[in-house]
Design brief:
The structure is a homodimer. Chain A has about 220 residues and is mostly helical. Chain A has ten helices and no strands. The relative contact order of chain A is 0.10. Chains A, B: One of its GO terms (biological process) is negative regulation of DNA-templated transcription.
């Protein structure tokens, strides 16, 4: 099929597969995010990606496959961003948590389209996409639980860390969703709100005590 | 249709409409929760409710309508349970929060079928059900924000209360979901985990300080 399309062949020779796949996924995230799953068309994705429709199908399959691939890629990116944020943070648990939250809200703020696809669109679609989302949540909870477990290792402590990780991931997701409706806030402000809630708790906040980022 | 069905007519005379609707909804919540939306059949719902299938359709419409009615009813019940818990709690904000969390996890523990339908099934289905779920979350966030705003009324404080309510509702949902996979925990234990997280914060918890319920 590609042999009929001179422009396509030139591109096909120039660009390695990973680059073309990335272009397709970038375009797909943009189009799914803006139109929603049902209204998004493979024509528009092909156009935005500047890659012929048959090639889009050849590389990433049906619209359903493509949407699932978007969820997987964006989830992996988000997880990598958080892990990278935390690993720069040194040993203090509050600073680790702060960097993790900054990385999370930084990612959501920078890639709002990703977050919309990941969270709103995927849960609005349900079915296999809801399953992808559930897998992503499980990975996120494991990542956070591993961080919270640094300080203690008893069985009860690790069960508690797992429960706290579930609560924290839920709080982060829900606050990121809230943020989509309050875009005037900066990533740092939203991250600081959640940091204060989970580090200081309402008890200290009511007393006027606040957590402050280092330096 | 009911005039052709002697047994149905007897029931129709004996039971007022609200009672029959309640029977149908109780049965539907049970069947949807156990089978999932797709595998659930109107035959089984009619059988469990002990109400003829034509009457099920006459009262509550199609399977889709019935599922949406289940979500609405269970969401309303949950909201009422939380509001009732909080209004018994007096003025202290920590005790109000504690009673609200106890009521929430008490409801989820007592009506696991409701929660499964509300949360897991509805989000696995997506579409209009995801919208019902979103409306329920918005109501829950408003309820919690109103509680958190008791102490202060500035615009910044009410924005913060709204963000904290979103975080808290997300944490509660996520922990309730975690609980479905850890049924050995009591409602009180799970509620106390979340209470400690949001009232004390990790900072105090790391220092070994805990929040204790009154008396």
């Amino acid at each position: 099929m590609r042999t009929n399309d001179a422009a396509g062949r030139v591109r096909a020779k120039r660009l390695p597969r990973e680059v073309r796949e990335r272009q397709i996924l970038d375009a797909a995230v943009e189009v799914f995010s803006q139109r929603g799953y049902h209204a998004a068309s493979m024509d528009e994705i092909s156009e935005v990606a500047d890659i012929s429709k048959p090639m889009v199908y050849a590389y990433l399959g049906s619209k359903e496959d493509l949407f699932a691939a978007c969820i997987r890629r964006e989830a992996t990116r988000l997880m990598e961003a958080i892990a990278a944020g935390v690993s720069e943070a040194g040993d203090r648990p509050d600073v680790q948590l702060w960097h993790g939250l900054r990385a999370f809200f930084g990612f959501v703020g920078e890639y709002r389209d990703s977050w919309r696809v990941l969270h709103r669109q995927a849960s609005a679609q349900g079915g296999p996409f809801a399953q992808e989302l559930l897998d992503m949540r499980r990975r996120a909870i494991s990542l956070v639980a591993a961080l919270l477990m640094n300080t203690s290792d008893s069985e009860a402590a690790s069960l508690h860390a797992d429960a706290m990780a579930a609560a924290l991931v839920g709080a982060g997701e829900s606050l990121a969703d809230w943020w989509l409706d309050h875009p005037e806030e900066s990533a740092g402000t939203v991250a600081a709100r959640l940091m204060n809630l989970v580090w200081m708790g309402f008890g200290n906040l009511v007393d006027g005590q606040m957590w402050q980022p280092p330096r």
